[in-house]
Write a structure and sequence with these properties.
37% of the residues lie in helices and 2% in strands. The chain is mainly alpha-helical and 377 residues long. A hairpin with an 8-residue loop joins strand 1 and strand 2. The protein starts with 7 loop residues before the first helix and ends in a 41-residue tail after the last helix.
Length: 377
C-alpha cells in the first residue's frame, strides 16, 4: 500500500489546526501548579484557587513603604502655628510635618518628586496658606474621606484601616479608577443597549455588561440574580439585572483575587444564613464605596474639570476625568488591587495616628488666595 500523500494546502491546514488547538489550550487552562485551599466541607467545592505566579505579582503590587519614626505629640498645635489649617489642626508641629512628608510620597507623581517640587504639587511655595493650587482643596476632602472610612466603616476595614497610600500607591490618581461609559443603562429595558458583547477588562473580557459600576457603586440599584416574583409584569429583577450583577461579581472576584465561594455558599448562593462571613464584609464595602463616590469624589468634579491633568505648573499624563467628562471614581480594585485584604492586610494606619485626628467639620471655601503666611496645609 502506498503512503498517503497530502497536498501542500492540506499539510498547511493541518499545521494551522494544530496551532489553533494549542492556542485554545494555552488560553483556556492555567499552567500548573495551581494551589487549592479547602475552606468548606470536603466535596462541596468550597475552595480557593491560587496561581503562585499571579500571587507573586500581587505581592509586588502590595508592598508597604517603611514608616518613618513616630513624631512627638507634644508642643504647639498646627492650627496655632500656621494659617488656614482646616483639617489637621489638632496635630503637633512634628506630627504635621511627618504626615505632609508621607502624603508627598504617597500621592505626588515620581517625576515631580524627583524634580524637588513635591510641596508645590499642593501649595504655592510663596504663600503656603493659599488655596490657589486646587490639589490642596482636594487633599483636604480626601483626608476627611479617609477619616470617615476608618471611623465609620470598621465593619468593612476592621481595625486595619486605610491611608492615602492604600489607593494611591505613589500616584496622584489610583491605578484602578473608573468613569461612566457611553450612557449604557441597566434600566433601559430588553430592547435598549445592554453594554454586552464588548469584552472589557472589568468583566474579565466576558460578554457581560462592561460598566457594572454606575448602577451599583454610584446608584443604589438592586444587586440580584434571583427574582423576587415569578410574574413578568411586576418583576423588576429580570435577566438584565442578573447579567449586570454577574458583571459586578466578576469584577469583585478579580479585584480581590478570590473565587465566588470566598463570599458565597456553593450549594445556595443566595442564602445569607449559609454564606461565609466575608459576604457581609463585602456588603458593607459596596455601600462604603457608594458613599465615597457620591459624597466625596463626585462633588469635586468641577475642580477636576478645570484641571484635568493636575496643577497648572506641574501637569502629568494622569487623567482626572473619564471619557464622559465625569470624575474618576473608586471600585473594589482601587484599594484591593488583587488581594482580598488591601496591602495583604498590613495595618498601615497603625503607623500613622495623625490620620485619626483629621477634623470632619465643614471646610471653608477660599475663592481668593489666603493672606500670606507660613501654613503648610
Amino acid at each position: 500500500m502506498r503512503p498517503l500523500k497530502l497536498s501542500y494546502t492540506a499539510q498547511a491546514l493541518i499545521v494551522l489546526a494544530g496551532l489553533l488547538v494549542l492556542l485554545i489550550v494555552f488560553m483556556t487552562f492555567e499552567r500548573p501548579p495551581v494551589r487549592t485551599a479547602q475552606i468548606g466541607f470536603r466535596g462541596t467545592a468550597m475552595e480557593q484557587l491560587q496561581n503562585p505566579r499571579i500571587a507573586q505579582q500581587v505581592a509586588a503590587r502590595n508592598v508597604v513603604p517603611e514608616a518613618p519614626e513616630a513624631a512627638d505629640t507634644d508642643g504647639d498645635k498646627a492650627r496655632d502655628l500656621y494659617e488656614n489649617v482646616q483639617v489637621l489642626g489638632e496635630l503637633s508641629a512634628a506630627q504635621f510635618g511627618r504626615i505632609m512628608v508621607a502624603m508627598t510620597e504617597w500621592i505626588v507623581p515620581q517625576q515631580v518628586r524627583d524634580a524637588g517640587n513635591g510641596c508645590s504639587y499642593c501649595h504655592n511655595p510663596e504663600n503656603m496658606a493659599s488655596d490657589e493650587v486646587y490639589t490642596k482643596v482636594v487633599a483636604r476632602r480626601m483626608l476627611q474621606m479617609t477619616r470617615t472610612i476608618n471611623a465609620d466603616w470598621s465593619a468593612h476595614v476592621q481595625q486595619t484601616g486605610v491611608t492615602c497610600y492604600t489607593c494611591h500607591r505613589g500616584q496622584p490618581v489610583p491605578a484602578a479608577a473608573w468613569g461612566r461609559l457611553e450612557g449604557i443603562d441597566n434600566r433601559a429595558g430588553l430592547a435598549g443597549p445592554t453594554g454586552q458583547n464588548r469584552p472589557a477588562a472589568v468583566a474579565n473580557n466576558s460578554s457581560l455588561p462592561f460598566d457594572p459600576f454606575t448602577p451599583f457603586l454610584l446608584r443604589e440599584d438592586d444587586i440580584r440574580n434571583i427574582s423576587r416574583t415569578w410574574h413578568p409584569g411586576t418583576n423588576p429583577d429580570d435577566v438584565r439585572i442578573t447579567e449586570w450583577t454577574y458583571s459586578l461579581m466578576v469584577h469583585m472576584s478579580q479585584g480581590l483575587g478570590v473565587n465566588c465561594t470566598f463570599c458565597h455558599n456553593s450549594r445556595a448562593f443566595a442564602s445569607w444564613e449559609q454564606s461565609p462571613p466575608q459576604r457581609l464584609t463585602a456588603w458593607h464595602g459596596i455601600r462604603m464605596t457608594r458613599l465615597m463616590n457620591n459624597e466625596y469624589i463626585e462633588p469635586l468634579t468641577p475642580l477636576w474639570v478645570r484641571n484635568p491633568r493636575g496643577p497648572a505648573e506641574l501637569q502629568t499624563s494622569h487623567a482626572r476625568l473619564g471619557v464622559q467628562g465625569d470624575a474618576l471614581k473608586v471600585n473594589c480594585a482601587t484599594c484591593h488591587q488583587g488581594a482580598n485584604r488591601p496591602l495583604l492586610g498590613a495595618p498601615m494606619l497603625r503607623d500613622y495616628p495623625e490620620l485619626n485626628l483629621v477634623s470632619r467639620g465643614p471646610l471653608r471655601t477660599t475663592e481668593a488666595p489666603a493672606p500670606a503666611g507660613a501654613s503648610r496645609n
